[in-house]
Amino acid sequence: MRNKRSVVVIVAFAIALATAVEGWAQGARKAHLVPVPQGQKVKVQGVVSIRNGDSFKVRNTAGAETSVLITEKTKVTSHGFSKNEYAVTYIMRGLRLQAEGRGDSEGNLVANWVRFDEQDLRSAQALEETNELAEENKARIAAAEEAARLAQQNAERMQAQIMETQAMAQDARARADAAQAQADAAFKSAAMANNRINGLDDYDTVKITPVLFKVGSSVINPTAKATIDEVASWAVAQRKAGNGNGWLYQIVGFADTSGNTAKNRALSERRAKAVIRYLVTTYNMDLRRLVQPFGYGEEGKHAADNKTAAGRAQNRRVEIIILQNKGIANTIGTTP
Question: What is the pTM of this model?
Answer without folding.
Answer: 0.39
